[in-house]
């Protein structure tokens, strides 16, 4: 088990990504900083969720995202080597990771479609519906960034 203090960086953009992380307790954020210095939040991960920069993890390349702790967090780590070994040795683990990946693809597709087709109010309502506990744990500025709206717009939506 690895402990991460609040505001500590787990993966920095440019790092080689060695592990996938399973959150035991706490809250993590994966974000991307564009050339203009604007942060785009890609994902949050709370208890029982997995998080890493998957492109960098599977390809053993440099991270595009930064993952940092929004709360003191404890995670379990799984290297790609150990993941592959688990899958080769135990069919049920291979099935588990395939199902996990499929669910991740579905969630990502929903998120992209929401960003493309939904207005700010609809995205906010979807967020509340999908992640009611995160609403209490996240500052409004981070929720706004995740939804792709300004803090002021989020304040109007949450009235």
In a nutshell, what does this entry contain?
The chain is α+β, with helices and mostly antiparallel strands. 47% of the residues lie in helices and 25% in strands.
Element layout with pairings:
Elements: E1 2-4, E2 9-11, E3 19-25, E4 28-33, E5 39-45, E6 50-51, H1 54-59, E7 66-69, E8 73-79, H2 80-89, H3 91-117, H4 120-130, H5 132-137, H6 140-147, H7 151-157
Antiparallel strand pairs: 1-8, 2-7, 3-6, 3-8, 4-5, 4-7
Helix pairs in contact: 2-3, 6-7
Describe the protein's architecture and organization.
It is a single chain. The protein is an alpha+beta fold and 159 residues long. It has one domain: Jelly Rolls. The chain has seven helices and eight strands, in the order ββββββαββαααααα. It has helices at 54-59, 80-89, 91-117, 120-130, 132-137, 140-147, 151-157, and strands spanning 2-4, 9-11, 19-25, 28-33, 39-45, 50-51, 66-69, 73-79. The strands form two sheets. A four-stranded antiparallel β-sheet has the order 1-8-3-6. Strands 2-7-4-5 form a four-stranded antiparallel β-sheet. A hairpin with a 5-residue loop joins strand 4 (28-33) and strand 5 (39-45). Helix 2 crosses helix 3 (91-117) and helix 6 (140-147) packs across helix 7. It is globular. The N and C termini lie far apart (40 Å). The model has no long low-confidence stretch (mean pLDDT 94).
